[in-house]
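Hey forum,

I'm writing up a methods section and want to include a predicted complex as supplementary material. The small molecule is zinc ion. I've pasted the protein sequence and the SMILES. Can someone with a working setup run it? I'll credit the forum in the acknowledgements.
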Amino acid sequence: MTKSLKDLSQFVELCEQLKIGVIKTGENDKGQLHIDVYECVTCSGMKPVGRTLCSFEGGLIAGVAEGIFKYKVNVREVTCIGGLGHESCGFDVIQK
Ligand SMILES: [Zn+2]
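Reply by user p_vandermeer:
Happy to help. Structure tokens for the complex are below, copy them as they are.
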């Protein structure tokens, strides 16, 4: 799944406008789009509770991705700052 740099930069810009956090895009080991959110507004500063917490951000990311990439996606949170003690909240964006 390849995306143009223009789409990706639009995606990051929109996420930042929505104040999701500081966004970095990349790929997971399956070549799927992977988004890291630093300074996540939902969970930064929380005490780890052993599960991911940011389904709200995941929903926003899915909405932005579908608007820009023009296909349906599933977003799965795989790392979480507050929930699991990672350094970023990480989301895999998987084309449906
Ligand atoms: Zn989070």
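Some notes you might quote in the supplement: The chain has a mean pLDDT of 92. The longest strand covers residues 73-79.
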